[in-house]
Amino acid sequence: MRRAKVRAATEHTTVGLAQAGAGGTVTIACACGMTLTNGPTWSLDEHIRLHRAEARFLALAQAAPPGIPRLVAWPLRQTV
Ligand SMILES: [Zn+2]
User: Fold this and answer.
1) Distances 79 to 2, 15, 22, 26 between C-alpha atoms, Å
2) Among 25, 31, 35, 75, which residue has the least CB neighbours within 10 Å?
3) Separation of CA 42 and ligand 1 centre (Å)
């Protein structure tokens, strides 16, 4: 599980610098290929934090031993 956490961290580092776009949008690329952005009710920083937390959760949940008590049912029914 420790390796899964490290892998999630390295696979989801931001790439390059934040880019300012039209209408006040700010985006930055993630190493996984997803573009992180601000929105009407969230900041770019909040999206980065959520993205990293989701990646960490998915990696740990995948690597966790069978039978371990869980807060979230696993496997998930649907992912992006
Ligand atoms: Zn990512």
Assistant:
1) 22, 23, 30, 25
2) 75
3) 17
